[in-house]
UniProtKB/TrEMBL annotation:
Protein name (Swiss-Prot/TrEMBL): Mannose-1-phosphate guanyltransferase alpha isoform X2
SUPFAM superfamilies: Nucleotide-diphospho-sugar transferases
Pfam families: GMPPB_C (PF25087), NTP_transferase (PF00483)
One MF annotation (Gene Ontology) recorded for this entry: nucleotidyltransferase activity
Family: Belongs to the transferase hexapeptide repeat family.
Gene3D superfamilies in alphabetical order: Hexapeptide repeat proteins (2.160.10.10), Spore Coat Polysaccharide Biosynthesis Protein SpsA, Chain A (3.90.550.10)
The Nucleotidyl transferase domain, residue ranges: 6-203
Domain of life assignment: Eukaryota
Signal peptide: none
Domain Mannose-1-phosphate guanyltransferase C-terminal residue range list: 293-410
Organism expressing this protein natively: Gossypium hirsutum
Positions in coiled-coil regions: none
Length: 411
């Protein structure tokens, strides 16, 4: 029986600076979206792949930060999940190659590679079937986006009939195509040979330059270490048009989770998806014995929500949260151990761990997921006193607000 393994790239603490202040005390991959850690969504999608042997998380966070999560998710899904720590960044392809012996332990016929900060429906089984039909080295998940936004991503040209990847360019300055790379791939083990070729070629070039002149040593191409191999520029671009790489287009939702604003949007996308994949995770209530629920809402079993509260749409309430009488929550993520007191309102906001929102207070924002202050963020242990209004603002941890603020970053 052919076995499949999955590798999820989780990055490390040097990345994710745009995710502050939410990444101060929790690794970005463990930040909850729709009540589940960010990395949980690609992991549970991998679980649906037939003949899946193992899931690997590769990154350069300290191992202790993932130990608890990895053991609990392995037990829950009844599949081995392992965290592999890089000694330094090796690039998206280099990281895969660095752990090739561990990844190939089960002698898999196919290897999935996913980026953790991608939000989509992960059509992995369909992708694998298409990949087997193409019989190339790799298949890339792609999606059509607006021509204006395409330049923020890797743009590609594919044959409309055969789906072969013909041309790939990362964040081009001029428009190439409205088809972009989703950061989800499936490869045969031939990918390791391809990565090895890039490293060898780079070493040969370095030796050649070393023999010629001192000036060439100063050239920008020398900047990349031999074992740092990027999947996009070093593999996809040179192998395009060689009948090695193919594309599989998703017609479903897709977003990149680079900022807290996008995490709130993606939490809503995952909540909407739960309707079809995990309806048992969505809360219900008509305001009699439990709170009124509007649209897609997740409430952790340990949270206490007053029956007169009105929650939703797009709300995720984490563990040990207390929501008082008459509270209104719309489009927000409420993290562990938060208290929202009577008649407070929270709209388009993320409320950090152990924070408290006083009676009759409002914490809200315009809801522009792409703008810097488009959503309001309260860091850990922020106290908003009674009758205080916080609009379009970011508040760093351990602050007390006793006056109203708007369009501010409170350091």
């Amino acid at each position: 029986m052919e076995k499949v393994v999955a590798v999820i790239m989780v990055g490390g603490p040097t990345k994710g600076t745009r995710f502050r202040p939410l990444s101060f005390n929790t690794p970005k991959p463990l930040f909850p979206l729709a009540g589940q850690p960010m990395v949980h969504h690609p992991i549970s999608a991998c679980k649906r792949i037939p003949n899946l042997a193992q899931i690997f998380l590769i990154g350069f966070y300290e191992e202790r930060e993932f130990t608890l999560y990895v053991s609990s998710i392995s037990n829950e899904l009844k599949i081995p999940v392992r965290y592999l720590k890089e000694d330094k960044p090796h690039g998206s392809a280099g990281g895969l190659y660095y752990f090739r012996n561990i990844i190939m332990e089960d002698n898999p016929s196919h290897i999935f590679l996913l980026n953790c900060d991608v939000c989509c429906s992960f059509p992995l089984t369909d992708m694998l079937e298409a990949h087997k039909r193409y019989s190339g080295m790799g298949t890339v998940l792609v999606i059509k986006v607006s021509a204006e936004s395409a330049s923020q991503f890797g743009e590609l040209v594919a044959d409309p009939i055969t789906k072969e990847l013909l041309h790939y360019t990362e964040k081009p300055e001029t428009f190439v195509s409205d088809l972009i790379n989703c950061g989800v791939y499936v490869f045969t083990p031939d990918i390791f040979t391809a990565i090895q070729e890039v490293s060898t070629h780079r070493e040969d070039q370095a030796n050649l330059r070393h023999l010629t002149s001192f000036e060439t040593l100063q050239s920008p191409t020398r900047a990349l270490p031999q074992d740092f191999v990027r999947l996009d520029q070093d593999i996809l671009s040179p192998f395009a048009g060689k009948k090695q790489l193919y594309t599989y287009e998703t017609m479903d939702f897709w977003e990149q989770i680079k900022t807290p604003g996008m995490s709130l949007k993606c939490s809503g996308l995952y909540l909407a998806q739960f309707r079809y994949t995990s309806p048992d995770l969505l809360a219900g209530g008509d305001g009699t014995k439990s709170a009124s629920i509007v649209g897609d809402v997740y409430v952790h079993p340990s949270a206490k929500v007053h029956p007169t509260a009105k929650i939703g749409a797009n709300v995720s309430i984490s563990a040990n949260v207390r929501v008082g009488a008459g509270v209104r929550l719309i489009g927000c993520i409420i993290l562990d151990d938060v208290e929202v007191q009577e008649n407070a309102v929270v709209i388009n906001s993320i409320v950090g761990w152990k924070s408290s929102i006083g009676k009759w207070s409002r914490v809200q924002a315009d809801g522009d997921y792409n703008a810097k202050l488009g959503i309001t963020i309260l860091g850990e242990a922020v106290i908003v006193e009674d009758e205080v209004v916080v609009i379009n603002s970011i508040v760093l941890p351990n602050k007390t607000l006793n006056v109203s603020v708007q369009d501010e970053i409170i350091l």
